[in-house]
Write a structure and sequence with these properties.
Serine Threonine Protein Phosphatase 5, Tetratricopeptide repeat, mainly alpha, globular, 159 residues
């Protein structure tokens, strides 16, 4: 999945971002900043855009992408899940969610998310590669760490 596509901004109402170069609207500024690798700046712009248009799933998806690039995986996951609540079945939302889960080292959940994406879009090569990477990480990583023990006799990892 491409990071941010010009179409993501072009489909927004003109007041929310549009697609013109040198855009002064928040979503357009966010897209331009993200494409230049200025992810913190992009997060700020997408946050402004979300305030203007809180029902636009692409804004949450784009901000999720930026959070993931900043290794702020919890926030990336939150925004990916919001994008899917606003637009259930959105393939890019599943991709963003899977990447955030992988960043959180929740490999089994990430793999299930990429599998779900592949059910929607079986030709998605990036999702296939991410799924294989998650499966490989599951094979080599120790048993999944849980912040809280599942059973009284299990201790959380790191204890």
């Amino acid at each position: 999945m491409s990071p941010l596509q010009a179409g993501d901004a072009a489909l927004l109402p003109s007041w929310a971002g549009g697609s013109a170069s040198g855009n002064t609207f928040p979503a357009g500024r966010g897209n331009e900043a993200a494409q230049k690798g200025h992810y913190a700046e992009a997060v700020q712009a997408f946050t402004e855009a979300v305030k203007l248009n809180p029902r636009e799933h692409r804004l949450f998806g784009n901000r999720s992408y930026c959070y993931e690039k900043l290794q702020r995986y919890e926030e990336a996951l939150r925004d990916a899940e919001m994008s899917l609540r606003l637009q259930p079945g959105w393939p890019k939302g599943f991709f963003r969610k899977g990447k955030a889960l992988r960043g959180l080292k929740r490999y089994a959940e990430a793999a299930r998310t990429f599998e779900e994406l592949l059910r929607l879009d079986s030709a998605n090569a990036e999702a296939s590669a991410q799924l294989e990477a998650c499966r490989a990480l599951l094979r080599v990583s120790p048993w999944p760490c849980h912040p809280q023990p599942c059973h009284p006799w299990l201790l959380p990892c790191g204890v």
